[in-house]
Amino acid sequence: MSLLEVRDLHVNVDDKPILKGLDLTVEAGEVHAVMGPNGSGKSTLANVLAGRPGYDIDVGSITLDDEDLTAATPDERAHRGLFLAFQYPIEIPGVSNMEFLKAAVDAHAVHTGLSEPSAVDFIKRARATAEQLHLSADFLKRGVNEGFSGGEKKRNEILQMLLLEPRLAVLDETDSGLDIDALQVVAEGINAFRAGDNAIVLVTHYQRLLNYVVPDHVHVLIDGRIARSGDHTLAHTLEDEGYGWLDG
Amino acid sequence: MAGSTADPAVATSSALARRLLDIETSDRSSWLDRAACQAVIARGLPDTRGEPWKYTNVNRWYDVALATHDPAALGIEAPDDVLVVDFDDPRTRPLTAAHRGKAFDLEEHPLAAVNGLLLDAGMAIVVPDDWHGEAPVRISDDGPSYQHILLVVGRGASITLVEEACGFTHRIVEAVVEPGGQLRHLRRQRPTPRRECSLVAVHLDRDARYELAQSSRGAELRRNDVVVTLAGSGAQVTVNGAWRLIDREHLDTQVAVNHVAPQGFSRQTYRGVVADRARAVLNGRIHIAAGAKATDAALNTKNLLATDSAEVYAKPELEIFESDVQCSHGATVGTLDEEAVFYLRSRGLSDKAARALLVDGFLREAIADDEGAARLEVVA
Predict the structure, then answer these.
(1) B368 touches chain A (CB under 8 A)
(2) Which of B244, B337, B346, B349 should one mutate to test binding to chain A, selecting the residue with the greatest count of A CBs within 10 A?
C-alpha cells in the first residue's frame, strides 16, 4: 500500500484544463520533487491535493493511505494527515500565531481521538520549534503572518508542518523568495521532519533547495503531465539544460 | 403645513414634544431643564427625514419613550475616595451645575433634551485630582428609564469606567476630564429586544486623554451617539468600536470627534459583523476647527457582511477648517476572505470553526478580548 496514489488526474481551473492525466505514487519515507516550467501545473497539483475550492477534478483519484480523498473537504484531508505549505501564506490580523497553531493542533487531536495538549505544554513545544527555525518567541504573539517578511512566512509554514506532523507534506514553492540563510533554515526544518513513516512532495521551480533536501525521486511536469521521472541527478540536468529538451 | 401634520412620523414626535412640555415644570430650575425645554420648543424632535436619523426610525423609539417608565435604582460602584452623589446633593451642586451639559449641544442631540425633561436618576461621580487606582467605577445595566451620569475626572487623575450600557430608554454618560486627566471607558452592550438610545459626551481639557472601547451586540433598536471634544491643547482620544448583529437587529452608531484646540490626537477604529437581516450604521465625523493646528486625526472602519440580506451604512465625514493637520480615513464593506477560510481549513479547522476564528480576529482589530470582544460571541 502506497502512502499517496494519484491516478489519471484531470483538473480544470476556471474551465481550463490544467492537469491532463497525472499519475504519481509516493511511498512512506520518500521525498519527491515536482519540477517544471511556469504554467505546467505544479501549483495546481499542490492545491488540488489539499482540496482548494475552485480546482475541479474532472477525472481521476487521490488516495492517501488507501483512503479515497478525491471528494474530501480540505479539513478532512488535513485530519487524514495531508499538509500543504502555501506558496503565499495568508495574513490573519487579530488572530495570534500561537492561537492559530493551537487551534490547528487541537483540531487534529480531536480527530485522532487524542486529548488536546495543555496550553503550557503546547506553548513550550511551539517555542522550541520556533527556535529551531530561528524565529523569536515574539513571533508567536504576532497576528498570523501579519507583517512577516517573505522568509518568515515560509518558516511559519514549516513551523506548522513540524507541529502538525502530517503523513504527507506538500510544499508549494517553499523555497521561493528565500535568501540563502533562510533557505538553509527551511531545509533543516524539512530534513528534521523527514522520517520513515511520512513523505514529502516538494513543488519547486529551482534546483537549489534540492542541494539541501536531497529527493529520492524527481518528476518533471510539462503541460499537465509528468514528462520525465528520475533520481536526484535529474534536477541537476534540468538546472544545466533547462526544460526545453523535454518539450516534445 | 397641512400635508406635514398628516405625516404619522411628524404626528408622533409632535405628540411626544407636547406631552414633554406639558409635564409639570415647577421644579425645572436647572439650566439644562430650561435649555431642554427651549430646544424641544425651538427645534422639535428629530424624525427620519433628517440626515442624523436617516437609517433609524426614531418614531419607534418615541413609541417607548413615554410608555415604558421604570423608576428602578441606578447601580454605580466606585472605589473609596471617588464621590458618587445625586445631582441635587449640596456637596456637588456647584460642580454639577458647572459641568452638566458642558460636553454636548442639545441642538445636536435632541434626545438628550427628552432625557433632561424625563430624568429619573442624575448622578455625579467625582474623581479627585491626582487620583490613581486599579479599581474601576462600574455602572450596571438596567435601572431607570432616563439616566444621566456625569463623571468629573480631576486634574492628573486616572480612572477606568466599566459600563454595562443596556436596559434603559435613554442614558447620558457625560465626562469632563480636567487637565492631564485620563479616562478609560469600557462600554459593553448585550443583545436585547428593547429600543434604547444613549449619548456618550466627553469634554477633554489640556493634555487630557480619553479611550473608549465599545462592544455592542444588537437590539430591536439601538442608537449610540458619541461626541468627544478636544477642548484643550494636546488632548488625545481613541474611540474603538466593534459590533456583531444577527436576526433583524439594528445598531446605529454616530460618533463625532471635535478638534477645537491645537495638537490634538484622535484615532477611531470600528469593526462590525452583520448577519441575517440586521442593519448597522456607522457615521464617524472628524471636525477640525480653524486654529486646531497640528491636529492628527484618523478614522478607519471595516465591515463584514455575513449574508446578502444584511445592511451596512458606513460613512466617514471630515470637516476640516485648518490647513496644518494630518487627517485620514478609510471605510470598507466586504465578506470573509475565502482564501483565509481555506488556509484555516487546510490546517484542520472545520468550515464553521475557521469562519468563527476569522470573525473573532477581525473584531479584535478594534476591541481586545479583555475589553469586551469575547462578549460579542454569537451562539449559533
Answers:
(1) no
(2) B346
Phi and psi at residue A185, to the nearest 5°: -65, -45
Which residues 6+ apart lie within 8 Å of A131 measured at CB?
A: A137
C-alpha cell at B221: 433598536
- Of A94, A108, A164, nearest to B361 by CB-CB distance is A94
SS3 B307: coil
* Number of C-beta neighbours around residue A145 at 10 A: 22
CATH assignment of the domain containing A152: 3.40.50.300
Instruction: Domain ranges for chain B, please list them.
Output: 2-336
**Are the C-beta atoms of B251 and B258 separated by less than 8 Å?**
no
Grid cell, residue B25, equals 415644570
Inter-residue contact B178 to B203 (CB < 8 Å): no
Q: What are phi and psi of B72, to 5 degrees?
A: -55, 160
- State the first-to-last Cα distance of chain B, in angstroms, to the nearest integer: 50
With a CB cutoff of 8 Å and minimum separation 6, the contacts of B44 are: B13, B14, B17, B110
Distance of alpha carbon A83 from alpha carbon A79, whole angstroms? 9
Q: Which cell numbers in the block locate residue A52? A: 482548494
| Structural domain boundaries enclosing A187 | 4-246
User: Facing residues of B212 across strands?
Assistant: B185, B239
* pLDDT bucket at B49, cuts 50 / 70 / 90: confident
Question: What distance in Å separates the CA atoms of residue A33 and residue A207, rounded to the nearest whole number?
Answer: 9
Q: How do the pLDDT tens digits run along chain A, 248 residues long?
A: 899 999 999 999 999 999 999 999 999 999 999 999 988 999 999 999 999 999 989 999 999 999 999 999 999 999 999 999 999 999 999 999 999 999 999 999 988 888 888 999 999 999 999 999 999 989 999 999 999 999 999 999 999 999 999 999 999 999 988 999 999 999 999 999 999 999 999 999 888 999 999 999 999 999 999 999 999 999 999 888 888 888 64
Non-local (6+) Cβ contacts of B103 within 8 A are B174, B175, B176, B201, B202, B203, B227, B229
How far is residue B302's CA from residue B311's CA, in Å, rounded to a whole number? Answer: 13
Q: Which three cell numbers, joined as nine digits, stand for B123? A: 448622578
Q: Give which of B320, B319, B315 is closest to B330, Cα–Cα.
A: B315
Nearest-neighbour CA in chain B from A246: distance (Å): 34
Residue ranges of B 311-350 with Cβ closer than 8 A to chain A: 337-340, 342-350
In Å, how far are A244, B146, B183, B228, B279 from B165, measured between CA atoms?
Answer: 70, 13, 17, 18, 19
Domain total for chain A? 1
Instruction: Count the residues in chain A.
Output: 248
Check whether B11 has a pLDDT greater than 70: no
Written as nine digits, the cell of B58 is 426614531
Question: Distance (Å, rounded) from C-alpha B195 to C-alpha B17?
Answer: 19
Angstrom distance (rounded) from CA B339 to CA B225 = 36
- Cα–Cα distances (Å) from A72 to A109, B25, B335, B345, B354, in that order, read 19, 73, 25, 12, 17
- By the CB < 8 Å criterion, does A143 face chain B? yes
